[in-house]
Amino acid sequence: MIPAKFDYVRPSSVDEAVAALRDAGEDAKILAGGQSLLPVLRLRLAAPSTIIDLGGIADLRRIAEDGDRIAIGAMVPHHDVMRDDLVKQHVSLLSQATATVADPQVRHRGTLGGALAHADPAGDLGAVALALDAEFVIAGASGTRTVGASEFFVDYFTTAIGEGEILTQVRFPKYTGWASHYEKFNRTAQAWSMCAVAVALRIDGGSIAEARVGLTNMGTTPIRASGVEAALVGQQANEDSARAAAEHATEGTAAPSDADAAADYREHLARVLTGRAVLAAAG
Amino acid sequence: MTTTAEPTTELGKARTRKEDARLITGRTRYTDAITPHGTLHLHVVRSPIAHATITSIDKSAAEAAPGVIGVFTAADLGVESVGLPCAWPITPDMKAPQRPLLATGTVHFAGEGVVVVVARTAAEARDAGDLVEIDYDALEPVLDMEAALAEGATLVHPDLGTNENATWAFDSGAAGTGGSVDEAIAAAEADPDSVVVRRRFRQQRLIPAFMEPRSCVVDPTGEQITVWAATQVPHILRTMTTVTLGVPEAKLRVIAPDVGGGFGGKIGVLPEEMLCVALAQRLNKPVKWTETRSESLLAAHHGRDQIQDLTITAKKDGTVTGLDVHLLADMGAYLGLVGPGVPILGAFMFNAIYKIPALKFTCTNVFTTKTLTDAYRGAGRPEATFGIERIMDELAVELGRDPMDLRKQNWITHEEFPFTTVVGLTYDSGNYEQATEQAMATFDYAGLRREQEERRARGDKVQLGIGISTFTEMCGLAPSRVLGSLAYGAGGWEAASIRMLATGKVEVVTGASAHGQGHETAFSQIVADQLGVPFEDVEILHGDTQISPKGLDTYGSRSLVVGGIAVVKAAEKVIAKAKKLAAHLLEASEDDIEFNAGQFTVRGTDKGKAIQELAFAAFMAHDYPEDMEPSLDSDAVYDPENFSFPHGTHLAAMEVDTETGRVTLRRYVCVDDIGNVVNPLIAEGQVHGGLAQGIAQALFEEANYDDQGTLVNGTFVDYTLPSAADLPSFESSTVSTPATSNPLGVKGVGEAGTIASTPAIVNGVIDALRHLGVTNVEMPTTSQRVWRAIQEAQGRSTQETPVDTHSPGAGLGSIDPNNPQGEVQ
Ligand SMILES: Cc1cc2nc3c(=O)[nH]c(=O)nc-3n(C[C@H](O)[C@H](O)[C@H](O)COP(=O)(O)OP(=O)(O)OC[C@H]3O[C@@H](n4cnc5c(N)ncnc54)[C@H](O)[C@@H]3O)c2cc1C
């Protein structure tokens, strides 16, 4: 593993990190858990002049309740997100999806912020953040701004995080008492998603009062399956309604084709998995 | 495994491996951890293009880079005329292109080295590598075997005039070992009471993917040139270095320190190893080369890659009457050390455990512009076993028979051993009935068939399939005369020495070269029994041509059944010498000396000497017989009289989700007959690892090339090796019909799991889907392939299953090797 040469800085606060980013100029890269960045460096697909390691900023490793939201620091590793009681109680979908990310080694190193900033369309957490309307807190030279999930994911590996900016926190509204499920389909047990479906339902007296559905790897960004959501609301949560709603799963998608799945198969998977996810969430 | 009382002998004891503590904790020396003072580092600049003319090479920027000692082409090193060896000319007229150390003029596969950079550090060498400018004029890649053989095809090596390496044929009719297949087919076609089943199967290309990447260190600063290499074959590497570079053999010392796996992938003689020797000599400094994982996947030899056209004929009562095998085998761009012979090893295994009266085998090896292929765990036998076990299932369907019943009807019964097969091999022992009965009982074959019926009847979305493989294989390579008859470039013997130290400890030198197998433990157990010394007192030495000067190394499940027997033979000589010395010291006739459990006693008396006392007496040499040298040390070279024929019955319960195509291995039961077992724990480990690799071929692995000839899954993100999470807990056990061809009654076990499991899995997948009209799914049976097969069988057309596209997303899968500089974010 021999990357090209780079300088390395390890700031101890967000302000320092932002300053370091500014000083380093265009060619700087932020290092979070390194699970995606290091392979890229190793294969020399990127050769940043400076690496700014956020590992020394304790503030970014906290999960806290903040009124009607759960605020998760960008540097909280997947393992902690998956195990955290607040997350389990109020954002169970995130906990479930995080548990499907890779293997224990990767989950101990990789971070929520890193995964979302990396914005790999096959990544599992984007669909969850989108479906649940998470907010992204982004720090830059001119202060902090907050971006909604629907604007955060711009394209393939591209987010609303601008040059010189750092993602510091992801804030999830509370979905206390919602039923949820993340249905992931992959090639080997610890691989990325070929396709996956994130579902959260508020079930009231047996019928679906609210539904949130996100799709993984069905386009260049995570996709909100609004058609499925609309079809579910007001329905009893059963096989028929799930199947009927699942027919809308490919609306607005642009399924990629690759060796694991050509577009037609991916679309088929999206429908099957949507049906299954809804039923599994409903229990 | 069933536990029985611990045996009183070492043979049969499930000892934990004594080498594991250091291997597992990493407190050991792999090649890359060896750095003689002043070592320089190599980086090989490789062609990103499969087939191209090199139009210019500009080294100037690289030469000026920090730390760089030199940047060399083959011409710069004067090695343009050096060709890497192929030791297996399968036919007298075989076409063998020279494989250069670095491509000269033309590159023939993506990943072929063109320039080598030498620098003070590995990082500087790597950095400078990026500065070497090579211009290429792309030529047409040659990727498809059938197209490569067609008239007017682009030639990989135009000077050969063809892309055909060789065609090797065996016809039992002509050889006089059986009938004529052509006649059997003609007869079956004319006979309404016979059937003819023709199938085409594909053996996809696999990557051995050993854990430790290949590495080589060469130190020229001494009387001998010392070569450390992550190799399975230190002895062969030494001889072949002499053959290749002309360095006198006695001036070379080759050491294989601890080696992290090989699976056949480390039996080659590498261009990089030869570059290390050439550069160390030229610069008179130690040099090191260690590949990255990506280099390893791209440029280390691949395995399998065959198209198999099979025709089987049978009477409607189930009796098989003939088998015609036609193979195309992809050699890649050049020939590996034994590459052309690998598919030929399969010639002797297509008849498997069956009494097939007529067999014809024709194999054409083909050159393409891909990475070369060579031995990979099982080498030729997994391919053959897959072919026969798959077509036996197809024949069963054709005849409306239970696939196990059909096998039973045709297999060699245990009373019929020794049995000479249609290809002229003599199977010494076996009991297919016993292994099968035990496997079927453990598996609950009847119960699972019932469940299968129920699932079919209710149209369950998850269907169950039962996969069978009743395999045998030939291993323990090999009787030297047989190898001679196949024009193989070496013998098949193995050497051993036993040194009785003055203090009673025992050093055993073996020519086998362990790289994860556990020889140190198993061979110690054998010697402890043979000499009657404590297990702890035995030390096994191997893998260094100065310590173990003679040997033919480790591959082909040969270490125990050839190397282990050599150890037994050496022990017998030690005992004979000790007996003579004991008789002398005890003033008895040699005929009256009895040897038992380390004690030499005079029959009918309580007078005796322990073997340790005799070792000391020999060391002192104060008193010993006139006609004897004062030493118990002994050497042996053992040339096996026959191959070893392990066999077993493997059963897989496969669940197939018909909605998504997802295949899940629910249960895997296997009963292997590997004769007497030296160490059940090690044997079980070999079976489990072998199963994982064989199952991986069926379900997960495939090296894919795009239409430009670029490997598209050259990282572990997209070359999908399974992990423990992808496999169930295997239910493996053994039965024992001792081999009669060696004194321990042992058979090889290293490749058995890999050879047996692949067809069991695929047969199971197809069995689950047969009622839906599916008759074949190519390997690996991915969810997409299975789903498409179901759609097609149901008359719904879908897109082609693409295998050659780069995955967008999925992390590194997003990297397009054709555009490696393309930023991903
Ligand atoms: C073997 C393996 C399997 C995997 N499988 C999965 C899977 O199944 N599902 C899945 O979702 N993911 C998977 N991943 C990816 C994993 O989730 C990574 O952790 C994640 O993609 C990146 O997180 P990281 O903390 O390691 O970020 P890094 O690798 O350190 O950074 C990734 C990118 O984000 C940028 N970045 C990181 N943090 C910030 C920040 N705070 N502000 C701005 N930019 C930032 C970096 O500059 C870099 O470009 C896998 C990874 C591996 C190695």
**What spatial order of strands do you see in the largest sheet of chain A?**
4-5-10-6-7
Name the quaternary structure: heterodimer
**Tally of DSSP helical segments of chain A:** 12
Largest sheet of chain B: 7 strands, mixed
Shape of chain B: globular
Architecture per CATH nomenclature, i.e. the level-2 architecture of the domain at 428-476 and 646-813 in chain B = 2-Layer Sandwich
Query: What's the total helix number of chain B?
Result: 22
Q: Give start-end ranges of low-pLDDT stretches of chain A.
A: none
Q: What is the fold named in CATH at topology level of the domain at 428-476 and 646-813 in chain B?
A: Aldehyde Oxidoreductase, domain 4
Protein name (chain A): Carbon-monoxide dehydrogenase medium subunit
Biased composition (Basic and acidic residues) (chain A): 240-250
InterPro entries (chain A): CO_DH_flav_C (IPR005107), CO_DH_flav_C_dom_sf (IPR036683), Diverse_Substr_Oxidored (IPR051312), FAD-bd_PCMH (IPR016166), FAD-bd_PCMH-like_sf (IPR036318), FAD-bd_PCMH_sub1 (IPR016167), FAD-bd_PCMH_sub2 (IPR016169), Mopterin_DH_FAD-bd (IPR002346)
Domain FAD-binding PCMH-type (chain A): 1-177
